[in-house]
Amino acid sequence: MKNLFLHSSGRWYYRQCIPLDLRNHFGGRADIAQSLKTKNKADAKNLAAQLQFKFSTIFTLLRTGVVNNIAPTLISDFLQKPKLNTGSGFKEKEEKTVVAVKLSKLFDMYIKEHAPGWKPKTLSEFTAQMGLLKLIIGDIDITAIDRSACVRCRDMLRRIPPGYRRKKDLCNLTAEELVKVKSEGLAVKTVNIHMQLLSSICRSAVKYGLMLNNPAEGLSLSATTKPDLQRKPFDSNDLQKIIDNLPSDNCAEKWIPLVAMYSGMRLEEIAQLTKEDIREVDGVLCFDLFGKNIKTESSARLIPVHSILVAAGLNDFVESVKANQNLWGLEAYRGGWGKRYGKIFGRWLRANITKDPKKVFHSFRHNVADALKLAVVPEPLCKQILGHANTDITTGRYGSKYPVDVIKNAIEQINYKLVYDKLLT
User: Fold this and answer.
1) Would the CA dihedral through 322, 326, 328, 330 be positive or negative?
2) Burial code of 289-316, b = ≥16 C-beta within 10 A, e = fewer?
3) Are 329 and 200 in a shared domain?
4) Does 411 lie in the same domain as 262?
5) N or C: lower Cβ tally within 10 Å for the chain?
6) What are phi and psi of 421, to 5 degrees?
7) CATH number where 371 lies
């Protein structure tokens, strides 16, 4: 081992070179040498391996910003003399050393490591989720977070009132006070999102030597409903009422539901469209989602414009919008474009169409998926239209994307058999 050297006294020493970018944390020193207090080379190798792991952890902590000045702790505490494995038929369990780090520091480290690959909306969502986790667990030393603390966190999440941050009488309460508020609590899916994030963060802490194990692993709740029953599609009466109650003006309230009904796009995908995102490709007018702030890589796609939208005057509306402007006059909010409109639509839906809580804007995607299935559109093509990944090894890995003329034919199969007299006049 290159870090070992034999002192003139006959004892083995360990020398660790300090990386150039970290030497300022060690008073400019290029290396650190420490006596292993043994003359046996085999024992020295054992001890050196333990020290090498500890130094590696220290360097990671410094580079991720979890700690800023480790040198005093490094010498006095963290690099205390390592212990030898016994020479018996089995090895004693190696005693691992961890560094005392607050939960908020661990969150900062996790964000710093992963944020370069996140979209602004993702960063905003994760930051909010971490805020709730810290509110429940407390900004404590992460070595105090055990299995029971994680189970308690999960149980409290289940009783937290939804949207408490937006309510003046709740936003400043402690976690203990929040769970006493009478409410339906967070949905199972939301609880699982928080617990999966906590597990991922703890997994990183284990990787960096900050925790001995992941106490949040496998604590997700079982789903209470099947995925296809969590939201309902609109029935034909709902869709007809939507058509009949749309405003006649060229505005977001008219066009966004229509586009969703005949394209299957997500609200956020529609909400961020600009005039330039509606263009002809190979002679077919399309919504172009390439280069947009999308949910997944497979969400980048072209969706031909349905003839109903053209008949309703979409082309004229697009022409009336200024270049490089949001089509619907929306502004970005909290890392996304559709959040504010989503609330407006929700209120309009409950007041004019249905009181069913399982019928929401996302129900349009269910309607499009059902319409494509009824038209016997091939599943890979349905997935391409809806922006879902095709994991089939034959059609997904080796198959090419469908051309726009084929997609156009599939889109035209979306037929709800509605009366459009009011819309088209």
Assistant:
1) negative
2) beebbbeeebbebbbbbbebbeebebee
3) no
4) yes
5) C
6) -50, -50
7) 1.10.443.10
Same domain, 254 and 276: yes
3-class secondary-structure state, position 261: helix
C-alpha 418/C-alpha 238 separation (Å) is: 11
Structure tokens belonging to residue 377? 């559109």
Cα angle at 261 between 255 and 262, to 5 degrees? 95
405 vs 175: CA distance, rounded Å = 55
61 and 109 in a common domain: no
- Find, among 267, 292, 263, 234, the residue nearest to 345 by Cα: 267
The token pair that represents 27 in the structure block? 């008073």
Tokens standing for residue 74: 């490094």
State which H helix or E strand residue 17 sits in: strand 12-17
Query: Among 17, 58, 13, 3, which Cα is nearest to 38's?
Result: 13
Residue 99 and residue 60 in contact, taking contact as beta carbons nearer than 8 Å? no
**Strand partners of residue 4:** 14
Quote the distance between the C-alpha of residue 10 and its chain's center. Answer: 56
User: CA triplet 286, 305, 341: central angle to 5 degrees?
Assistant: 95
pLDDT in tens, 381-417: 999 999 988 776 556 555 578 999 999 999 999 999 9
Question: Which three-class secondary structure state does DSSP give residue 292?
Answer: coil
Give the model confidence (pLDDT) of 224-277 as tens digits: 655 555 689 999 999 999 999 999 888 889 999 999 999 999 999 999 999 999
- Residue 194: give the domain boundaries: 103-224
Sheet-wide strand order for 302-304: 278-281, 284-288, 302-304
pLDDT at 231: 82
Q: Alpha carbon of 282 to those of 36, 264, 285, 289, 372: distances in Å?
A: 73, 21, 8, 16, 23
Type of residue at 123: L
Distances (CA, A) of 202 to 85, 95, 100, 114, 144: 28, 19, 14, 14, 12
| Lookup result for tokens 């229509």 | 258
Determine the 3-state secondary structure of 287 from DSSP. Answer: strand
Contact 367, 239 (CB under 8 A): yes
**How far lies 328's CA from each of 153, 244, 261, 314, 334, in Å?**
41, 20, 16, 12, 18
At how many degrees (to 10) do helices 41-64 and 103-114 cross? 80
- Does residue 293 lie within any of the structural domains? yes
Which residues, in sequence order, are CB contacts of 55 under 8 Å at separation 6+?
Answer: 16, 79
